[in-house]
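Researcher: Dear colleague, please comment on this protein.
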Amino acid sequence: MKYKFTLTLGLFAFFLCSNQPSAQAQSSTSGSNYISTAVPFLTITPDSRAGGMGDVGVATSPDANSMHWNPSKFAMIDGDYGISASYTPWLRELVDDMSLSYLTGYYRLDKNQVIASSLRYFSLGEILFLENADDIAVSRNPNEWAFDVSYSRKLSDQLSGGIAFRYIRSDLTQSQYVEGQETQAGNAFAADISVYYQKEFSQNRKKMLWSWGVNISNIGSKISYTTDDEKEFIPTNLRLGSALKLELDKFNSITMAVDLNKLLVPTPSDGSIDDNSANVIVGSETSNESVVSGIFSSFSDAPGGMSEELKEIAWSVGIEYWYQEQFALRTGYYYEDEDKGDRKYFTAGLGVKLNMFDLDFSYLIPSSQNNPLKNTMRFTLAANLDEILK
């Protein structure tokens, strides 16, 4: 029996695993219309704090991992410099050697300006490339990575703005020939634009901090894995949210946050759907549209009209409790419509703030059985360089 590993099939399978629709959603007959893009590793939550709060982060208090959620938060961060490292074993229910690593740091230029940088590395583990049954399998380690730099500035005591630039490299085939066609690593450039607002006030003699944020991320070029003109969208994304921190007393505080999230890429047409199959289309089928046109059309191009557009908005809520700013408990919930991926899960997390280091852990609990995200854990270690370099 002849086996062929084609580039399209390989990328398609990767998209499905990375976007994580559950087994139930993949077999849906209700007209599911998933939006798939290249390099979906850019959308994976990299740090444990946000991972423990249901993947919220655009409006929570600034920390060293703000690059992924909202770079403008760096301008409001306490301290002059800091670094953080995170590690996430990925899809361990399916494979045992896939992972996401994340390293980030920031430096304050003055009281109003902060620069930051991050490196995200996604390893797909060992994969055997085999084009024909008679060929000798070639072992490779496909990987993807992105390098970011950002600049954020206070625009007032309550408002800040930020911009980030990103280089993306996706090497899924390790330059293997696929059905006689030469493949290559995909390269792309992108930018983020963000704002963050926070305001302190008192209610019933209790201090409160209200904040909101907006981040449009991955505005950039399309990506290609071959030498032809076939290019695919990267996950341009709109995230907005709000958070409220309440100081219960001098020892206890609690933060409640909510995020809304929408991909700003074209929705696949449902022209190929029938009554008995779900419509799962790789982003390349809509690749003729420009990036700018795709961003604006993403608000009105769903085949199902406004009702389907609303389904494309995923939402998450999170709660964070601190005791004496030393020990944290976190929980949250993430929801995505069943026709758009069907990711639904609860999260839980812990945090410990030491003199010079912060330790964070999070755990994901899917709300459905046989979910490949089951037992996802994240680990984060942050160094408080202000304390170390005193």
User: Anything to note?
Assistant: Residues 26 and 278 are 7 Å apart (CA to CA). DSSP finds seven helices and 20 strands in the chain. The helical segments are 7-19, 23-26, 48-52, 66-69, 291-297, 306-311, 385-388. The mean pLDDT is 85.
